[in-house]
Amino acid sequence: MNIEDLRIVANPTLVREHAVDKIRTAIATGLYLPGARLVERELCEALGVSRTSVREALRQLQSEGLIEPGPRRTIMVAVLSAEDAADIYTLRELIETTAIRRLVERNDAKVVRRLQSAYRAIEKYAGKGNLPALSEMAGAFYEEILDGSGSRIISDSGRQLLKRVSYLRLTSMSAPDRVEKGVAEWSAIVDAVIKGDADAAAAALGQHIRNARDTLVARLSATGEREAAHPA
């Protein structure tokens, strides 16, 4: 994603929602990195919307945990610790494995096709080495699982957790061999769903989330150790 992609052209009633989506995507794809300061004036210019719309969008993103107050009344992209990330992924495993069991038990052909479609997009972007697009499609894949559960409570709770770690997905994917292993794990999840095996689907998804968690926590821990050894 580039700064030019933030521009919004939409019905005024949808401006706030578009602003939230645009800024959230910019964070998730690495345009704004953890710790980066978000300046209202610059966002207004990039998005082409009013300061009121930007402020409303920032309030929404702060409620999601994606941004947080910085020094001297600034707003910055949230920085999650390795411990925070581990906790979020542990909760993701509980919720998403429950969701995929429900999805399999519902046996809805349309839901399965949407999950397969999301996986094919993952394969395509993984093959191209397009990590930002791959990260976005991985998020869509998990959302299909949550929505496929047929439970609004499960879906809403799971989506909130996904939003908290969306911008960290690139950190995990950039680890050596993680994309290749991840594609194999996604494939195993889809295969189990197609076979109607809820236990295998939950086991494959649980292992996938744990592997992603371990990779991410290791990289965040290493980053924290380097910063402690070489403070700014």
From TrEMBL:
Enumerate the spans annotated as HTH gntR-type domain. Answer: 13-80
Give UniProt keywords alphabetically: DNA-binding, Transcription, Transcription regulation
Work out whether the entry's keyword set contains Phosphoprotein. no
Q: What GO molecular functions are on record for this protein?
A: DNA-binding transcription factor activity; sequence-specific DNA binding
Q: Which CDD domains match?
A: WHTH_GntR (cd07377)
Q: Extract the InterPro entries matched here.
A: AsnC-type_HTH_dom, GntR_C, TF_FadR/GntR_C, Tscrpt_reg_HTH_GntR, WH-like_DNA-bd_sf, WH_DNA-bd_sf
Transmembrane stretches, start-end: none
- Record's superkingdom? Bacteria
The protein's name is: HTH gntR-type domain-containing protein
Q: Which organism is it from?
A: Sphingomonas sanxanigenens DSM 19645 = NX02
